[in-house]
């Protein structure tokens, strides 16, 4: 009896060992986060970014998916500003982004909400700086053939998404849309299956603007009425709306435009109907009060041109960095986001920060120290 | 279950090979059902493959397989999935190197050394339990214990995948070892071989085909898993050849995030990545099955 | 060299005395290696159990039984996990019910019916089921399969609404392509290659002599399978089914995409639902505080659930094996 099996087992084990060795012993690319600084750190003057000082190393960031599209574009364009730096941004969700920052897994976190009180203990008393980087509208996108200019009020939206209004030809909707032919179809809700900052801020808007009609609270996950169709990501919700006649859902402006959806004009705090736009978002953000630490909520801002369902997102960093190179890299990158990076926002359908918020944020850069 | 003898009939006319018609019909029905079962499994598979090819084949070219990952808004023919391919290969290889030897040794312990002892029973039972743990829990376990202390790395992802593969390898290897007849072991011992020698030179080769087959299933599963990698390896747009340090990316992650994006370019790249992953996994599986067919003692 | 003793290397006990005294270093080292591997598995499992339980502790420390309530609503801070346990059970049962007959059919087809030459290509085709990544199954499920099957669900539901058991299971108002039943189907596709592969290996070891004996007595192929292959393979097949069940319960991404994300308990299988892995995958990224702890806790609950299922399955195997031996 020839025992060929042993040779096979040995050969297989050898192959696996070689594969593992190859994987391990290959050259390491410049991916360590603490390579020594390639140049002087940027001077701590009034927050302006100095592109003349070269910085090198890797920055890792994680968090909100709302800012993911912007981060990706900024990272790519930033390479021509600081070619020695590599920035990675992982869109895992604001909650995990904050957890990653608290444990030092990442250098910066992207978050659509300020750190909740239940999480402050994770940061062990170290100061966290908030850098707002953009605002953006949330659209009410819908699929109704022949209807292109739907108008909605916060109260009606709240009733639709609570399941109190179930048909398109309900008098509450027809009365605010005179002259529009609304079908007598049932309304299909398109919502998020995954938790998200978009849901959180959309529900916050409903809670703020229509408190008597909205009882489902504000959270990154809402218990929607039965019959709601859930999709993964803004793209998933957009796909449901596109393929379901009579559907309505809440989709990020950037993603609604990319998917080619029709969206409604919403009545704002001043009483006018405003269509979602980057200008409307900036107007809403300009019409809210900003705390000294740069936290704020951009929903339901005052102003005639304000689009009321607008939200915001921040980059969070520790004020105290472990070494000088990390501090320089963060100042360079965040400075870019607040400076030249803001030019990238319109083509991506985001709204730029109102100028007062932007300059305060730039001034805050000097608080990043080592 | 007793087997009935064939029906009595006039001696000259009966055909001893032909059972009475009802039993024959039952037999034919069952055979038809078996073929039907095969079709039921294959038809949806066909649909999936056709869908992936239809949506993904148009982006595949050499540039796609080697280029860096572009921003989501880029059009479909821009950039590629090179870093994800490298990431998947190196992370899965590392996970296999960790899980397969450990799992086979564990199965050897349970079956050859542990026997009816309490420890072996506990290990066997717990590996059953572990095979039901969701892949996301494995990912979160490694996230809590490893990533939060050692940052993003391919190693973290490999550990999570190894946790996923381990119970599968143990269970299937144990089943295969159990099937090896005791007579082989006894014969080998009777010739004076020590237990270790018996196991490595007689039992393992005899069970090799089944063990490799089970390990293959574990590797195929690991290569296609998203959840264990979600929170443990981060993301990159350029190739990271060092699997032990620094953030990394993998094909399943890219497929998942791209397909949820509303940008058509990103979606096309996501499906291209899906097609690539299926091809890679399938080629690997065929290669390993060929190896098994050539070398296994009890090949079919 | 060593005298022929009654050393029985199939028993777990130490080898017979003469051999034990002269036990070579390599043998002992190998035994220790195997033992270490076994212990390492145990350590990893215990670590997972402890670590997840620790994360879940703030949820478990709720004094009442609210963790088993039907209401899961982060907006109101209620975290009852019953809908997810229900969903996991339902989808896993559906998946295994669909998959086991198919897998056994294919395994028997390959071993008993199909000539040797065709066996290998068919095996490769069945392997293709295993190499499709779970995320692709999920995406195909939600983008292609669910919209198509929703029409079929609606037709069935309108047909059986009112009929007693059928209406209970397949009726209802909230018919959706993304539902318990669709998840069960998709999971079945993912589980089939596992059960098939292992069942094939097990069935292939049926002693040829018994099979030939049955044929010699005039049995048809089906009767031979029933009388010879099945009793021999029972234990191994149950083991394969258990492994498949484990996969069905633990599959995360595909379930998260096609289950409908609705934490409701309903008998209507064509309605959206939720299960344990799916809720963790969907909600972990944004979760915080008690919510995050509750999500880890649902994972611990799944541990317990898996243990119960395994104990039952093992009991079934023992009993049928005892019956087969006694028969």
List the defining traits of the structure above.
heterotrimer, A: 370 residues, alpha/beta, 9-stranded mixed sheet, 3-stranded mixed sheet, 11 helices, B: 300 residues, mainly alpha, MetI-like fold, 0% strand, globular
Q: Quickly give the structural class of chain B.
A: mainly alpha
CATH superfamily descriptor of chain B: MetI-like
- How many β-strand stretches of chain B? 0
Regions with little confidence, pLDDT below 50 for 5+ residues of chain A: 11-51
- Kindly report the average pLDDT value of chain A: 85
Q: How many β-strand stretches of chain A?
A: 12
Report on the architecture of this protein.
- The complex is a heterotrimer of chains A (370), B (300) and C (327).
- Chain A has 370 residues and is α/β, with parallel strands linked by helices.
- Chain A has helices at residues 5-25, 68-78, 94-103, 154-162, 171-176, 197-209, 233-243, 253-259, 278-286, 324-338, 355-364, and strands at residues 57-63, 85-90, 108-111, 128-142, 151-152, 188-192, 229-231, 247-252, 262-263, 265-267, 273-274, 310-318.
- In chain A, strands 1, 2, 3, 4, 6, 7, 8, 9 and 12 form a 9-stranded mixed sheet that branches. In chain A, strands 5-10-11 form a 3-stranded mixed sheet.
- The longest helix of chain A has 21 residues, at 5-25.
- The radius of gyration of chain A is 24 Å and the shape is elongated.
- Chain C has 2 domains: 2-55, no CATH class; 66-326, Orthogonal Bundle (MetI-like fold).
- The model of chain C is unreliable at 1-12 (pLDDT under 50).
- At the B-C interface, helix 1, helix 3, helix 4, helix 5 and helix 6 of B face helix 2, helix 3, helix 4, helix 5 and helix 7 of C.
Secondary structure topology:
The complex is a heterotrimer of chains A (370), B (300) and C (327).
Chain A: H1 5-25, E1 57-63, H2 68-78, E2 85-90, H3 94-103, E3 108-111, E4 128-142, E5 151-152, H4 154-162, H5 171-176, E6 188-192, H6 197-209, E7 229-231, H7 233-243, E8 247-252, H8 253-259, E9 262-263, E10 265-267, E11 273-274, H9 278-286, E12 310-318, H10 324-338, H11 355-364
Parallel strand pairs in A: 1-2, 1-3, 5-10, 6-7, 6-8
Antiparallel strand pairs in A: 3-12, 4-8, 4-9, 4-12, 10-11
Chain B: H1 21-56, H2 62-66, H3 82-114, H4 118-131, H5 135-150, H6 154-179, H7 182-190, H8 195-223, H9 227-230, H10 251-259, H11 264-295
Helix pairs in contact in B: 1-11, 3-4, 3-6, 3-8, 3-10, 4-6, 5-6, 6-8, 7-8, 8-11, 10-11
Chain C: H1 17-21, H2 25-60, E1 72-73, E2 78-79, H3 82-113, H4 116-131, H5 134-160, H6 164-170, H7 180-204, H8 208-216, H9 221-250, H10 253-258, H11 276-283, H12 290-326
Antiparallel strand pairs in C: 1-2
Helix pairs in contact in C: 2-12, 3-7, 3-9, 4-7, 5-6, 5-7, 7-9, 8-9, 9-12, 11-12
């Amino acid at each position: 009896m020839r025992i060929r099996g042993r040779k096979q087992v040995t050969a297989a084990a050898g192959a696996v060992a070689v594969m593992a060795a190859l994987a391990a012993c290959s050259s390491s690319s410049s991916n360590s986060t603490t390579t020594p600084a390639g140049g002087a750190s940027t001077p701590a003057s009034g927050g302006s970014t100095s592109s003349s000082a070269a910085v090198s190393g890797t920055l890792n960031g994680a968090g909100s998916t709302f800012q993911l599209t912007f981060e990706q574009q900024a990272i790519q364009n930033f390479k021509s500003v600081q070619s020695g730096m590599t920035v990675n941004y992982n869109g895992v969700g604001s909650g995990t982004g904050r957890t990653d920052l608290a444990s030092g897994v990442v250098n910066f976190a992207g978050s659509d909400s300020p750190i909740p009180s239940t999480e402050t203990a994770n940061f062990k008393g170290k100061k966290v700086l908030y850098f707002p980087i953009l605002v953006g509208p949330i659209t009410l996108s819908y699929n109704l053939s022949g209807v292109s200019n739907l108008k909605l009020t916060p109260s009606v939206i709240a009733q639709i998404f609570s399941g109190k209004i179930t048909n398109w030809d309900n008098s509450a909707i027809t009365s605010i849309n005179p002259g529009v032919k609304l079908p007598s179809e049932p309304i299909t809700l398109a919502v998020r299956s995954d938790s998200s900052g978009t849901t959180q801020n959309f529900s916050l808007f409903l809670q703020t603007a229509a408190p008597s009609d909205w009882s489902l609270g504000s959270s990154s996950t809402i218990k929607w009425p039965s019959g709601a169709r859930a999709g993964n990501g803004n793209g998933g919700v957009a796909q449901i709306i596109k393929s379901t006649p009579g559907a309505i859902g809440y989709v990020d402006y950037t993603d609604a435009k990319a998917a080619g959806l029709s969206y409604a004009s919403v009545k704002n705090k001043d009483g006018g109907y405003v269509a979602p736009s980057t200008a409307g978002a900036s107007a809403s953000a300009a019409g809210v009060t900003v705390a000294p630490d740069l936290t704020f909520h951009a929903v339901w801002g005052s102003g005639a041109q304000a689009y009321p369902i607008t939200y915001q997102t921040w980059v969070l960093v520790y004020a105290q960095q472990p070494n000088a190179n990390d501090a320089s890299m963060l100042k360079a990158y965040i400075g870019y986001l607040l400076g030249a990076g803001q030019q990238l926002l319109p083509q991506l359908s985001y709204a730029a920060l109102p100028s007062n918020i932007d300059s305060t944020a730039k001034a805050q850069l000097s608080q990043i120290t080592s | 279950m007793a087997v009935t003898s064939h029906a009595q009939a006039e001696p000259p006319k009966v055909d001893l090979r032909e059972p009475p018609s009802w039993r024959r019909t039952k037999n034919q029905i069952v055979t038809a059902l078996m073929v039907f079962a095969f079709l039921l499994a294959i038809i949806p598979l066909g649909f999936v493959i056709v869908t992936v090819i239809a949506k993904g084949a148009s982006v595949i070219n050499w540039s796609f397989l080697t280029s860096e990952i572009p921003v989501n808004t880029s059009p479909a023919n821009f950039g590629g999935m090179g870093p994800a391919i490298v990431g998947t290969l190196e992370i899965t290889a590392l996970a296999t190197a960790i899980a397969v030897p450990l799992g086979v040794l564990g199965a050897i312990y349970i079956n050859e050394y542990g026997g009816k002892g309490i420890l072996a029973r506990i290990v066997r039972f717990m590996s059953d339990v572990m095979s039901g743990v969701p892949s996301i829990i494995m990912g979160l376990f490694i996230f809590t214990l490893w990533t939060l202390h050692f940052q993003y790395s391919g190693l973290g992802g490999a550990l999570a995948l190894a946790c996923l593969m381990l119970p599968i390898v143990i269970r299937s290897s144990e089943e295969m070892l159990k099937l090896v007849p005791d007579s082989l072991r006894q014969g080998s011992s009777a010739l004076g071989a020590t237990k270790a020698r018996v196991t490595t030179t007689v039992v393992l080769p005899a069970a090799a085909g089944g063990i490799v087959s089970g390990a293959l299933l574990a590797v195929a599963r690991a290569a296609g898993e998203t959840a264990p990698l979600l929170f443990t390896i981060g993301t990159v747009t350029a190739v990271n050849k060092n699997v032990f340090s620094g953030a990394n990316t993998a094909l399943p992650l890219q497929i998942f995030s791209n397909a949820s994006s509303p940008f058509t370019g990103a979606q096309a790249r996501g499906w291209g990545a899906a097609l690539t992953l299926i091809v890679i996994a399938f080629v690997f599986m065929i290669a390993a099955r060929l190896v098994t067919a050539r070398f296994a003692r009890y090949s079919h | 060299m060593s005298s022929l003793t009654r050393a029985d290397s199939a028993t777990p006990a130490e080898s017979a005395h003469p051999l034990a005294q002269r036990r070579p270093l390599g043998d002992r080292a190998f035994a220790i290696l195997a033992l270490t591997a076994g212990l390492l598995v145990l350590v990893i499992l215990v670590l997972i159990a402890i670590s997840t339980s620790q994360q879940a502790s703030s949820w478990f420390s709720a004094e009442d039984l609210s963790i088993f309530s039907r209401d899961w609503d982060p907006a109101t801070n209620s975290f009852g996990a019953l809908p997810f346990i229900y969903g996991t059970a339902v989808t896993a049962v559906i998946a295994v019910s669909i998959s086991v007959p198919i897998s056994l059919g294919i395994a028997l087809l390959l071993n008993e019916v199909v000539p040797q030459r065709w066996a290998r290509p068919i095996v490769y085709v069945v392997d293709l089921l295993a190499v499709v990544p779970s995320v692709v199954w999920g995406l195909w499920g939600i983008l292609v399969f669910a919209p198509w099957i929703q029409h079929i669900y609606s037709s069935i539901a309108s047909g059986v609404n009112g009929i007693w058991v059928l209406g209970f299971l397949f009726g209802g108002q909230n018919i959706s392509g993304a539902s318990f039943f669709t998840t069960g189907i998709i999971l079945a596709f993912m589980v089939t290659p596992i059960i098939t592969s292992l069942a094939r290996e097990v069935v292939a070891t049926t002693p040829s002599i018994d099979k030939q004996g049955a044929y010699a007595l005039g049995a048809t192929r089906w009767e031979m399978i029933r009388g010879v292959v099945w009793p021999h393979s029972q234990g191994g097949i149950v083991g394969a089914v258990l492994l498949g069940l484990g996969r069905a319960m633990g599959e995360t991404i595909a379930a998260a995409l096609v289950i409908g994300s609705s934490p409701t308990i309903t008998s209507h299988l064509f309605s959206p639902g939720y299960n344990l892995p799916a809720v963790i995958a969907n909600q972990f990224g944004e979760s915080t505080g008690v919510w995050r702890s509750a999500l880890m806790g649902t994972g611990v609950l799944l541990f317990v659930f898996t243990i119960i299922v395994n104990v039952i399955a093992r009991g079934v195997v023992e009993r049928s094996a005892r019956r087969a031996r006694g028969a």
